[in-house]
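Input chain follows. Return structure tokens only.
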Amino acid sequence: MWADAEPDDIAFADSHAAHGNFRAWAQLTAHTRTGLARTGRPRADRELLRWAFSRLA
């Protein structure tokens, strides 16, 4: 999933939610995959990432 993402979006996700933490990346990935499935988008974008951020505990 992240292989198709824009490098700037990956950096955005890390700086706003994951902070280089493996567990945070795993949670973010799970929520992002759910969002992709629900929206039918081909890859994560900032709008979808913001939604995924809101789902993090």
